[in-house]
Design a protein that fits this description.
four-stranded antiparallel β-sheet; mainly beta; five-stranded antiparallel β-sheet; globular; disordered N terminus; about 425 residues
């Protein structure tokens, strides 16, 4: 692979240099531009605090799309009158767009399912994950932009039909990334004060136990977990990427140094991938990599113009990884084998902020406040739904049949049945 070049419209990177011999490779780099401030630690760009206590509606509320790219209140919103359905696939929520396509409580407008509210009144919900039965997420708490002064975040769970809202952990100091492993929920807690008391924690996802620390991690923000180990970034010197085997008595291994504490980790079966948004870098590293000596690596920095890479997500088969370049307005794809390099497969996307990958790539754009779907090979894409009002920040998760949205600005967890 040409490690010093992004292929496609972005052109060559400057200062290309291979880390093949030492295990760490910069796979793409775009400078974040003239950023006035770093990204918020817990929730996202230009956050606004949600209002109200944790609550759930008695009945999931359908929200439909107008089909317009502007984020104005749609005709199919819960408060707007809708004409009676004639039984066609244009409006039948049990057969929306095609026979047997059930919107699971959402409205059907123009043959497209609409959002369903699973939970409302959440306090700055951010990262979320789903397992086919429940949706799990973290509420940052009263402050979307965490400053170490509060410990009122929570870890939440709701059934995918919008019932059974439950709090799995409360009193959390700026919880961030969330993940599932076996029967447990894992999440990162940035901490209070100077964030020295940050941690990565877990609790049984059925609510049967109490939270317990897996690792003490100052200013913990991002991590991934697999069957064997926990991989995480730390905001304390040396601002590294660490591996901690999930066994009693294990100690962490420093895998890479000089990484911004807001690095966003992703993984496939054999490799870690992470972005450093404010530097515009994307890196890859073998999961079993161990540096010679204890100092870890100080990776080379590559800088070009105009990017702000977000979460790095892998296809389920590990064949490619994807990320959103916010300031380049593009969805990037990197094949994990061969020498094709990273390339924008969906350009002109209106400041894409976050994405998730399974059978397809799903992403949210800030420019249109809309959700999009694209094939993993870049051959086709479509807008799925526009928000009924502009939003600054969302996070996404999927299961086999639906996409889930943590809508930070309005404090809601939403579901949309896949097309």
């Amino acid at each position: 692979m040409d490690k010093g070049r992004l292929h496609g419209s972005l052109g060559p990177m400057r200062g290309g240099r291979s880390w093949r011999g030492r295990g760490l490779v910069v796979v793409g780099s775009i400078l974040a531009g003239a950023l006035a401030a770093a990204a918020p630690a817990c929730v996202g760009d230009d956050p606004k605090a949600g209002a109200g206590a944790d609550a759930t509606p008695d009945v999931p509320t359908p929200i439909a799309d107008t089909g317009a790219d502007t984020a104005s209140p749609p005709d199919g919103s819960p408060d707007a009158p809708r004409p009676a359905c004639d039984g066609s696939t244009d409006c039948d929520p049990k057969n929306c767009g095609r026979a047997g396509h059930d919107c699971e409580g959402g409205a059907c407008v123009g043959g497209k399912c609409g959002f369903v509210e699973l939970a409302t009144g959440q306090r700055n919900p951010s990262h979320l994950v789903a397992d086919g039965e429940h949706v799990y997420w973290v509420n940052a708490g009263s402050l979307a932009l965490c400053d170490g002064s509060t410990s009122d975040g929570a870890v939440m769970r709701v059934k995918r039909d919008g019932t059974g809202l439950a709090t799995l952990a409360q009193g959390q100091a700026c919880p961030a990334t969330i993940a599932l492993r076996a029967g447990d929920v894992y999440w990162a807690v940035r901490g209070t004060g100077a964030f020295a008391d940050g941690a990565i924690r877990r609790t049984p996802k059925d609510g049967s136990g109490s939270p317990a620390d897996v690792a003490q991690v100052a200013a913990a923000v991002s991590f991934v977990v697999d069957d064997d180990a926990l991989y995480y970034t730390s905001g304390a010197a040396p601002n590294g990427v660490f591996r901690l085997p999930l066994r009693l008595g294990a100690t962490p291994t420093l895998m890479a140094t000089n990484q911004d504490p807001l690095s966003r980790l992703g993984h496939n079966g054999t490799e870690l991938f992470w972005s450093v948004p404010i530097r515009g870098d994307v890196f890859r590293l073998a999961k079993d990599f161990t540096p010679a000596g204890s100092a870890g690596l100080v990776p080379a920095a590559y800088h070009a113009t105009g990017s702000y890479p977000g979460d790095v997500r892998a296809q389920p088969d590990g064949a490619a990884v994807f990320w959103a370049n916010r300031d380049e307005h593009s969805i990037m794809r990197l094949a994990t084998a061969g020498d094709a390099g990273a390339a924008p497969i969906y350009p002109n996307q209106g400041r894409p902020r976050t994405l998730v990958v399974d059978d397809a790539v799903y992403w949210w754009t800030l420019g249109q406040s809309a959700l999009y779907r694209g094939s993993t090979d870049g051959t086709e894409s479509a807008r799925l739904l526009a928000a009924e009002k502009p939003t600054n920040y969302v996070n996404l998760a999927t299961d086999a049949t639906a996409i889930y949205v943590a809508h930070t600005d309005t404090g809601r967890i939403l579901k949309l049945v896949k097309p």
